Amino acid sequence: MDMTLPDPDKSGTFFERLRAVYDSMGEAYDEAALHYGFTCEGCTDNCCTQRFFHHTLSEYLYLMEGVQTLDDERRAEVLTLAKVVTDTYPRELEAGEILPLMCPLNFEGLCALYEYRPMICRAHGLPHRFQRPDGKNVEGGGCHRFEAGHLVTVYIDRTEFYRGLAELERDLRAELGFTGRYKKTTAQMLLDMAEHLGLDS
Ligand code: SF4
Prior knowledge:
Blueprint: H1 8-36, H2 57-67, H3 72-95, E1 106-107, E2 110-111, H4 119-123, E3 128-131, E4 137-140, H5 144-149, E5 156-157, H6 159-176, H7 186-197
Parallel strand pairs: 3-5
Antiparallel strand pairs: 1-2, 3-4
């Protein structure tokens, strides 16, 4: 990906802001989960096989910070899996079918970079709503497990979290002079990181 990395001192400030958004999101999620008595425990339908797209450089850079905490062996495994996953995308296109491919960061059902995982991984599972910048209200349901066992009585309002992330993203892009569009799966982000960090993938 064609992008200069930010000064490490400055990225610390961006990461702090991102963690604050994640923490608020986590609190709202926990509150709603408590309301519903909902947990992921024992769920066999691992949501890490969902094709999530990520749209922010801030989450890209934060996940890259996480990748650098992995030991060499685990990092090599992650990058090999990321390659396997992305190599499957063209075949899916040909077949006209999206396969449930496991995220390259998931090992034995657990996220290898849980503390660094992107927003959508934190938000998935419970009903939510948010107001788009154009004022339109959008609602979304919970995951299969939630829908099978619960009536919707409470929504997580994601508006503030998305706004916080958008403001952070705006400032980061201004800092980097990046004006492009960003839309990548976790596997694609991981391969970009390998390139940025000069790692073999
Ligand atoms: S980043 Fe972690 S939580 Fe998100 S899909 Fe991948 S393994 Fe799952």
